[in-house]
Design brief:
Length: 344
Amino acid sequence: MNSEAARNQDVFEAAAIDAESQRPLRFSEFIARVVIGASLAALLYALWSSRLDSAVSWTGKELRVLPRMSLFVLTALMALIIQGQRPREIWLLGGGFLALAAAVLLLPLAQVWDVYALPGEQFSTAFKAAAEQTWRPVGVSTRPDAFFAGAAVQVMRFEASILAALLLGTWLGRDIRNHLHFFTLLSLAAVGDIWMSLFAVPESGDSTQLLSLLRMPWPPQIGQLSLSPAFTDLLILTAVIEAGRTLRFHMLSLVLGAVAGYCAGSFLALEPWPAWPMLSMLMMGSGVLVGCWPDLKCTASDTIRALLISSLLMLTLIGFTLLHRKLNPPSPQKVEPGRYYNAI
């Protein structure tokens, strides 16, 4: 009996030593998955950069939403790659804050990049004319080394923003363990998207304000291209995927529902009038609910509680926004007198 207990103790200690020795390998696997995801983001940026010249003049809606949808689908794929390893929460939280700090620190460098011109031999006149309004003032240097240095800064900021949203969203979704929290997350995401759209959070091309971090730095808002996804869009997407994994929803149905809903919202956000840019997360949440409806167990009281919480959040955001405008009123616009023909 004692020999069997000693043998079991030896097996337990050997398993503990083996698990202890495999911890660095697990962390290295997490880093490898993050590197793979960052490489996919850089590949997407490189593939689209050579096609933005023609994308500026696209008029078909199915083409104008392609860059935005490519980024959304890429983030879902990166989430499936990184979350499949089930990383620890401390890795997610630490990596997310490091990536977010990198995106914030790269913002001044992106402003420096705004003063450089685009090489004329690589872009057409129509593309340069549209890009000059967003990326730089006119009449400055066109050195190729400045162009490639600025492009590297843009790629690094783009990757840091995606990884920050992905890692922090995964950490957020790790604690969603019941269906009430899941439905509340979707309703809060819709409220936040409505607030961002109604109160004009800066677009991706405007890197002069800190609030521009709430928009992904790519694709640029030039020409006929659709508006880039919000940082919170990707954060909620990865949180939903992680929560669906915890709640044992059908993952393929959930992801396809999220992509289909977000695609529908992106189409509705396009011009010409009427354009409803505030429907992206509402449509995505509807697609997610359709995808996981057979497994979702949410009572009527849970639905009412979630809607009350989201309404409280909406009122709070509107209150803070009105207070900010009251304390910092916009400067009055100077109205020029009208000019008439044959008038001196």
